[in-house]
């Protein structure tokens, strides 16, 4: 298989740039900035100031209810502030594609493989247009065989390439768990350092809008226990692009978790080249009373709850941990020393989840600074129901965050 990829670097055909079109009829997203979703004959537009413009038929009323429960906006100075900033606006899936495209232009050893990533453009259009621009050797459509093409990507990385492997859904990568665990994470060590594995494994996960149990998997904790692998979770277009570029340049294998409900989240990002630190958390909102640690989609539920908490007189500090392995204990520790209270909000399962590992790390390193036990809000330990009302019950909602903070601070 390695011989197939030896000529990949010479296969870059610079022709046309990818299109930005995207069919979102079957998806409903929970953005921080702004988006437009069309479902049936109803259109919902949410801007950064929190105003909602609706053109609803009867079928659209449920969409209104879901958005009201899901959207959380960061406190911006004005709704027009982003339009006056330098840079360009992108949806999150477009930011991922831009980062990937820039790295493929910069380094001919970067290649992409996965199901439907070629001329179809990927199931969420992250790779749309790349096959036309870079050719079929650098953007390789694979059969529905996750174990095989993930292993092929690991072998390609051993020979000097930098593959980006897309799992159409993170749940499908369970079929490649042996390759990721026994080969991807370990070959650098078991070879005595003779091989590096600069591979990126990425794809959508998380609870969507009635996608059913098998397509609503949160597998962060599954992969967290594998030695030799880094894990990051993007939550904004800015860090999606920056983490994608940093992961591709890393000499370590990196798993990049994307959330299916954040792909249509819009943000203005810089025109100039930038990358994000793979091991650094992001301070979303400075505060004094309690440290709220979160990541991915739950960042927006936390920020929605933060508005209510501020109105009630609380001053929460919100940190997007971003790096799921290793944790940024420097940023987290400084926050704990300031607030002395910690709430963890995650979409991962409670038993053995990211929150459990984070709780253990904080207790081991910063126990003396805590004035109250750490609280952790996680998804319920049940398969995600298909019914929309039941699905919402399994995932942490903003009202639960408000209640937890009130309990912690009293």
TrEMBL record:
**Where does the Transketolase-like pyrimidine-binding domain lie?**
90-265
Under the heading SUPFAM superfamilies, the entry gives: Thiamin diphosphate-binding fold (THDP-binding), TK C-terminal domain-like
SMART domains attached to this UniProt entry:
Transket_pyr
The UniProt GO MF terms for this protein read: metal ion binding; pyruvate dehydrogenase (acetyl-transferring) activity
EC number of the protein = 1.2.4.1
UniProt subcellular location: Plastid, Chloroplast
Q: Could you name the domain of life of the organism this protein comes from?
A: Eukaryota
Q: Gene Ontology terms, cellular component aspect?
A: chloroplast
Matching InterPro entries: THDP-binding, Transketo_C/PFOR_II, Transketolase-like_Pyr-bd, Transketolase_C
Q: Which UniProt keywords apply?
A: Chloroplast, Metal-binding, Oxidoreductase, Plastid, Potassium, Pyruvate, Thiamine pyrophosphate, Transit peptide
Concerning Pfam families, the annotation shows: Transket_pyr, Transketolase_C
Q: How does it assemble?
A: Tetramer of 2 alpha and 2 beta subunits.
Tell me, in a sentence or two, what this protein's role is: The pyruvate dehydrogenase complex catalyzes the overall conversion of pyruvate to acetyl-CoA and CO(2). It contains multiple copies of three enzymatic components: pyruvate dehydrogenase (E1), dihydrolipoamide acetyltransferase (E2) and lipoamide dehydrogenase (E3).
Q: What is this protein called?
A: pyruvate dehydrogenase (acetyl-transferring)
Q: Where does this protein come from, organism-wise?
A: Theobroma cacao
């Amino acid at each position: 298989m390695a011989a197939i990829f030896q000529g990949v670097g010479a296969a870059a055909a610079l022709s046309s740039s990818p299109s930005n079109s995207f069919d979102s009829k079957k998806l409903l997203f929970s953005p921080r900035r702004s988006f437009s979703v069309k479902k049936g004959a109803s259109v919902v537009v949410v801007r950064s100031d929190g105003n909602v413009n609706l053109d609803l038929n009867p079928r659209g009323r449920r969409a209104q209810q879901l958005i009201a429960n899901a959207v959380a906006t960061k406190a911006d100075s004005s709704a027009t502030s982003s339009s006056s900033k330098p840079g360009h606006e992108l949806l999150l899936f477009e930011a991922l594609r831009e980062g990937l495209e820039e790295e493929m232009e910069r380094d001919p050893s970067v290649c992409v493989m996965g199901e439907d990533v070629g001329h179809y453009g990927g199931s969420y259009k992250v790779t749309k247009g790349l096959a036309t621009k870079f050719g079929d050797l650098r953007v390789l459509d694979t059969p529905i065989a996750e174990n095989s093409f993930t292993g092929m990507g690991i072998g390609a990385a051993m020979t000097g390439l930098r593959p980006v492997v897309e799992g159409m859904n993170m749940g499908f990568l369970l079929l490649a768990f042996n390759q990721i665990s026994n080969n991807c994470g370990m070959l650098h060590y078991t070879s005595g350092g003779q091989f590096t594995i600069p591979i990126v494994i990425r794809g959508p996960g998380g609870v969507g809008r009635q996608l059913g149990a098998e397509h609503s998997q949160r597998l962060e904790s599954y992969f967290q226990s594998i030695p030799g692998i880094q894990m990051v979770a993007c939550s904004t277009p800015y860090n999606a692009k920056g983490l994608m570029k940093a992961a591709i340049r890393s000499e370590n294998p990196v798993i990049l978790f994307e959330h299916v409900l954040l792909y249509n989240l819009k943000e203005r990002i810089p025109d100039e080249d930038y990358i994000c630190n793979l091991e650094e958390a992001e301070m979303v909102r400075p505060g004094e009373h309690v440290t709220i640690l979160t990541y991915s989609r739950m960042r927006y539920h936390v920020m929605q709850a933060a508005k209510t908490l501020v109105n009630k007189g609380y001053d929460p500090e919100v940190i997007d941990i971003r790096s799921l392995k290793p944790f940024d204990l420097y940023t987290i520790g400084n926050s704990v020393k300031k607030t002395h209270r910690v709430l963890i909000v995650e979409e991962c399962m409670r038993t053995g989840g990211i929150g459990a590992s984070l709780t253990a790390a904080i207790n081991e390193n910063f126990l003396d600074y805590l004035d109250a036990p750490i609280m952790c809000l996680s998804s319920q330990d049940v398969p995600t129901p298909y019914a929309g009302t039941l699905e919402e019950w399994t995932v942490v909602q903003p009202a639960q965050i408000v209640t937890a903070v009130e309990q912690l601070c009293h």
